[in-house]
Amino acid sequence: MPKKSNKIWGWGGRNGRGNVPSEDKHYFDGFKLQVRAKPGVPQCEIDDKLKEQLKQAMSKRYVQETNALDLSKFHQDPDLGDYFCALFRPAMLMTVLDIVSEHIPNLEALNLEGNKLQSIDRLNVLNKKFSNLKILYISDNKIKDIHQIDAIKDLKLEELKLIGNPLCNKYKSRQNDYISDVRKRFPRLLRLDGTELPRPIVFDVVDDTAKIPSSQRMFVADAKAQEIASQFLQQYFTIFDSESRQPLLDAYDEHACFSMTISTSHNNKLNGYLMENRNLFRIYDTARRQKLLKHGRLPVVSFISEMPRTRHFLDTFTMDIALATQVMMFITITGYFQELDNKEQPIRHFNRTFIIVPEGRGYCIRNEQLHISQPPEAQLKQLNQQLNSQPTQPEVSALLPQTSTQSAKPVELSEDIKQQMTMTLSQQTNMNLEWSLKCLQETQWNYDNALSAFQEFFKRGQIPSEAFTK
């Protein structure tokens, strides 16, 4: 008589071993009984009876003194009876969190260790449900990637446990990277996996209780250096904002160097400065680097004379004197200025670094770096409010000494400067020194006007051949 085979299919039990398919064979009275278990977990209906049992189980796990709730290995809690309450099931997890938020909304510490959590996306509700939560344990779960904890990065955690998750294996030999990647998400974190961390620098973290010291508009250790720098810069910016910048020839050393950089942005608002942008991270050609470096008094003043007419807002200036000796001073000025030649008259932000050295009875610029950037809309709005709230009177900066508001008088050029201008014009136009001198004298020693006049008359053919005889 042939043997009969009976197959019985079922689900794994609540001990959690149901995730592994199993097969048992038994023989009874000559019949083979084959039992197989499908992979999966027992299902249970979430009704009021189960919710009441959940409350009773969690009440024993709550510590009132520390305002902490321990839900570690919750599915193994004996108070749950025959129910298999696995928190890795989204519906069960949300039910439990809803109950907790209803009865303990001010919860400060939550332990979810050993709950076989693979995805923690549903934990993104923790920030809304528990605004006071500062401690979270989610170690010994199945979290595989550091990016998964982005779901809870809005929590203002001071302590976090992740150890025992697969993601930690990726950082076995990179502990510093592990701490850094976690702290990027939780800047206030003081303790990670039971280890104390250095206290964070939280200047970039919004904290209503933290009082950041007010910024100082000026850092100067030497009062005498401040007086010298303030007077020098007051004269400099008065002339820079005037109709002619030619008097600045006296402000630069004969061998002065000047360079300009800009912050490139997607809106291309600084395109007018782009061709002269000497950003060494973007320019690799040595010859072009050298060309963009203005070297010598005349090339420097000629370049800045071609820049748009400006109005500097002196009341926005900050000044730092990082170095002050008998032979040099290192000065950094930041602030805002407005372009007057542009129809829209846009406002720009600038950072100028001057190295000034003693020259005769005063000082002159040996090296200058100018950086121009486009302020974000929020800064422009704040600046406009500040300017509109000020009374309509001549602007005076607290950093620079007050002077007459009348336009600056032309500065008498020294003979050395006139001689250098004559030689430079001669080299640039190929005229002899006599005619170069005559051209400069007729344009009141304005180099740009002299060069423009030469180009105009040369096009018309009105310059005699004797002007080129050397």
UniProtKB/TrEMBL annotation:
GO BP annotation list: poly(A)+ mRNA export from nucleus
Matching Pfam families: LRR_NXF1-5, NXF_NTF2, TAP_C
Major place of residence: nucleus
Domain TAP-C, residue spans: 416-470
Protein keywords: Leucine-rich repeat, mRNA transport, Nucleus, Repeat, RNA-binding, Transport
Subcellular location: Nucleus
The NTF2 domain, residue ranges: 228-372
InterPro entries according to UniProt: Leu-rich_rpt, LRR_dom_sf, NTF2-like_dom_sf, NTF2_dom, Nuclear_transport_factor_2_euk, NXF1/2/3/5-like_LRR, NXF_fam, TAP_C_dom
GO function term, MF aspect, one: RNA binding
Family to which the UniProt record says this protein belongs: Belongs to the NXF family.
Protein name listed in UniProt: Nuclear RNA export factor 1
Taxonomic lineage of the native organism: Eukaryota, Metazoa, Ecdysozoa, Arthropoda, Hexapoda
